[in-house]
Amino acid sequence: MTSPLLAHAAMAPAAADASTTIGVGEGGWIEIVWAPQAQAEMDQRGATVEAIAPAELIERNGGRGIRFPVRSAQGDPSLSNPAHTQGTGVADGGLILRVASTEVRVTRLAGDVRDEQISGRYMVNDVDAGMQPVFRWRATEGDLAVVPGAPGKPVELKISDLPVRLTSEMLDLWTTSARSYGLPSLSADTVVAHVTAQGRFVPPTS
């Protein structure tokens, strides 16, 4: 039951091909705010979320979620066409999800972004969950703000309130869980969370 909810923790921008210009991200963070349907489901089941520092719980626009600092990231933000954004990264902190007598710790968060999809890798109770597709989105639905710097200098980037949906792989997992635990059905179009991310992109020097 908990796996699709825990999947919000997977993060970071996908390995690029040789033709892509790769830069470095710095000073970044990412917030995941559960969609009302996901939050209602958690509340109904008495599920609580605790942040593992330096991650922290947040409230924004009436919703609840968690913010993770990004330790390292590299990739191509593809400002001319954000749908082609790709990169890899690692986030600090984690979360603890408690449901009844069950406690699930999610740590060592890393991810890979490509083609409007993120695959995540993380530890669940100190067991490697492996890399798996988690979320997908439409880049046109987010609010992208760019503050350009001088040539060769960092560019400030922020994307706000990007709706994310489950990948087909994660949706299959949810559907199986729904049968076993009486969870509500989700479709490929169901928004499960909204993501906001900010940081500086440092372009390559050559």
- Helix percent reads 10-25%
Radius of gyration: 17 Å
| Structural class based on helices, strands and sheet pairing | mainly beta
Which word captures the global form?
globular
* Lateral strand order in the biggest sheet: 1-4-5-7-8-10-12-13
Biggest β-sheet strands, sense, barrel: 8 strands, antiparallel, barrel
Q: How many β strands by DSSP? A: 13
Can you characterise this structure?
The protein is globular and about 55 Å long. With 206 residues, the chain is mainly β. Strands 1-4-5-7-8-10-12-13 form an 8-stranded antiparallel barrel. It starts with a helix and ends with a strand.
Keywords:
3 helices, 206 residues, 13 strands, mainly beta, 51% strand, 8-stranded antiparallel beta barrel, globular
Produce the secondary structure layout.
Blueprint: H1 3-6, E1 23-34, H2 36-44, E2 48-52, E3 56-60, E4 63-76, E5 86-91, E6 94-99, E7 102-114, E8 117-124, E9 127-128, E10 132-136, E11 143-147, E12 155-166, H3 168-181, E13 191-202
Sum this structure up briefly.
The chain is mainly beta and 206 residues long. The chain has three helices and 13 strands, in the order H-E-H-E-E-E-E-E-E-E-E-E-E-E-H-E. The model is unreliable at 1-19 (pLDDT under 50).
